[in-house]
Amino acid sequence: MIEIKTLATGSKGNCYHITDGSTPLLLECGISFKQIQQGVNFETSSLGGVLVTHEHKDHCKGVESVLNRGLDVYMSKGTQEALQLQHHRIVTVESKKQFRVGTWTILPFDVQHDVNEPLGFLLQSDNGSKLLFATDTYYVKYRFTGLTHIMIECNYDQQTLDDNVESGRVHPAMRKRVMRSHFSLENLLEFFRANDLSKVEEIHLLHLSDGNSNVERIFKAVARTTGKMIFIP
After folding, report:
1. Tens of pLDDT along 191-206?
2. What is the arithmetic mean of pLDDT over 67-87?
3. Is 69 strand, coil or helix?
4. CB under 8 Å to 22, separation ≥6 — which residues?
5. How far apart are CA 120 and CA 137, in angstroms?
């Protein structure tokens, strides 16, 4: 059993609280520490750590505050270098090398984004639950089995993005950048078809673009393809 709470998602900030009942974690810290405190009912001292995927501010705005409050923050060496941060609470991790935080065994994996060494995370709890967390990537090349929970980006759908370009709301250069750095609905559906979803209980769709996504279209397409419980925070 895994409980998932979204504190923030989208370009204005990303932060998620997860727990397996024993070790609570934060995934990303792209909001202020005050917002984090409020989001976890001021129980930050119970957090086992914070996982950060990459250096963009909407994913790590609060990282210095989190570190200074005594929380361990796990990130790639490339992310640390991009942030130009030195702190004894930073733990650098590598793609495909497992590490432990409390009751979680965590496997980082490389994703495709226009930053320095971004990561996704596969988290397996001692209670048998398995969570995939992947955001800010236009593609995930790996296949996963035994997943019970999925938290994954669905930033845009191609029809809405193309309509915005045609109407002049989105510059063609921005269209190109979005398509090379974020997960589309169409790629996400291919990802779901390629993976074993037989044990999946919940799918949380994250980081939807305010302007380039049609929530109703995305919800219906993912529900139809997966047949699973869908959450769009």
Report:
1. 999 999 999 999 999 9
2. 96
3. coil
4. 102, 103, 125, 126, 127
5. 9
* Alpha carbon distance 233, 189 (integer Å): 19
The confidence score (pLDDT) of residue 96 equals 97
Mean pLDDT of the chain: 95
Backbone φ, ψ for residue 6 (5° rounding): -90, 120
Q: In Å, how far from its chain's centre is CA 102?
A: 20
The token duo for 218 is 């995305």
Cα–Cα dist 142/203, whole Å: 18
Backbone CA torsion sign across 90, 14, 1, 189: negative
What CA–CA distance (Å, rounded) separates 111 from 31? 22
Report the distance separating Cα 95 and Cα 107, nearest Å.
7
> Quick check: 150 and 195 in contact, CB under 8 A?
no
Strands 202-206, 73-75: pairing is unpaired
Helix (H) / strand (E) containing 226:
helix 215-226
Amino acid at 232: I
The rounded distance, in Å, linking the Cα atoms of 175 and 161 is 7
**Residue 100 confidence (pLDDT) above 90:** yes
Name the 3-class secondary structure at 219: helix
How far apart, in whole angstroms, are the C-alpha atoms of residue 125 and residue 102?
9
Question: Which pTM does this prediction carry?
Answer: 0.94
Query: Contacts for 87-92 with beta carbons within 8 Å, 24 or more apart?
Result: 91/49
**Rounded to an integer, what distance in angstroms lies between the CA atom of residue 233 and that of residue 231?**
6
The SS3 call for residue 185 is helix
